[in-house]
Write a structure and sequence with these properties.
By secondary structure, the chain is of the alpha/beta class. 47% of the residues lie in helices and 10% in strands. The protein has eleven helices and five strands; from the N terminus they run H-E-H-H-E-H-H-H-H-E-H-E-E-H-H-H. It has a five-stranded parallel sheet, sandwiched between helices. 39% of the residues are buried.
Length: 290
């Protein structure tokens, strides 16, 4: 089979797998706690990363909800007593080059040209690829998208304050971690600040050096993109999980070990992330947002 034919076959297989996930998700009933109008509510936000279309972000958010609901019966009583509502806080993508540009400015504090040239120094990209990537309408992206950060912070505040009075768990992926940290800081630096402990973060594949609010995170040892960023910025959080041995390594969903669905389809990364989510939700259950 030619390389093109193999890529097409793998792509078709991945579409079939994704469709199966969607059907399975539709068959899972809402948690029992959600049938009780008096049960406390927690909103779980997914924040997408780079090169993610709105449709892909929705698929990722659905995968997160699916895996959570599958594991919920085995979670703590405090978690099961809450009604968990899932939501997407979308981080608009401007395409792969533009997203890398923005991530470079947010996390590495360097110009996009220097970002790509430093990656070239690690022999991760050819000069031709860098030249092609730097051509086009990149010069307009010269600042962090403050409006997106503000929109995210407003969404979290609306969930916490009356009449919603919900706790908030944020699960960001990739560049979404940078937006989540910035939105968290903005939220707690603008009066009135939410009550302490009403927001928790469980980051996935993070290029950041910290998780706001002393939150948790999981990054795979085989995540090529984050490993590249870590070589340039050694302070990037170290890896603390992996995908193990999985057929995903041969599929388009591998994406250099950076795919969110891959993180939630392979073990031990899937179990590690869900364990972090459970512990964060248990801590949130002890806090009264209003």
């Amino acid at each position: 089979m030619t390389r093109t034919g193999m890529r097409l076959a793998l792509t078709v297989a991945w579409i079939v797998a994704a469709s199966s996930v969607d059907r399975a998700h539709a068959q899972i009933a809402a948690p029992p706690a959600c049938q009780n109008v008096m049960a406390p509510r927690t909103t779980v936000f997914f924040v997408n990363g780079i090169t993610t279309t709105l449709d892909d972000a929705r698929l990722n958010a659905g995968k997160l909800e699916l895996e959570f609901l599958n594991r919920l019966p085995g979670m703590s009583a405090a978690v099961q007593a809450n009604c968990h509502v899932f939501a997407l806080n979308y981080n608009p993508t401007g395409g792969e080059v533009n997203d890398f540009f923005e991530a470079a400015q947010q996390q590495l504090d360097i110009t996009p040209t220097r970002f790509w040239l430093e990656l070239e120094g690690l022999n991760l990209f050819t000069r031709e690829l860098i030249r092609d990537a730097l051509e086009g309408p990149m010069t307009d992206l010269n600042r962090i998208d403050a409006s997106t950060i503000e929109r995210h912070a407003v969404a979290y505040r609306e969930q916490i304050t009356s009449p919603s009075c919900r706790r908030v768990l944020i699960v960001p992926h990739s560049q979404g971690n940078l937006y989540t940290n910035a939105a968290y800081d903005l939220l707690f630096n603008q009066p009135p600040s939410p009550p302490p402990g009403t927001i928790k973060i469980v980051g996935v594949a993070t290029p950041a050096q910290t998780v706001a609010g002393n939150g948790l995170y999981r990054t795979s040892t085989t995540d090529v993109l984050i490993n590249a960023i870590r070589l340039i910025r050694p302070g990037t959080l170290p890896p603390n999980t992996n995908w193990g041995i999985t057929p995903l390594l041969l599929s388009p969903s591998y994406s250099g070990g950076h795919s969110f669905i891959g993180y939630l389809s392979a073990d031990p990364s899937r179990t590690d992330i869900l364990s972090d989510i459970e512990s964060s939700l248990t801590a949130l259950a002890a806090v009264n947002p209003c």
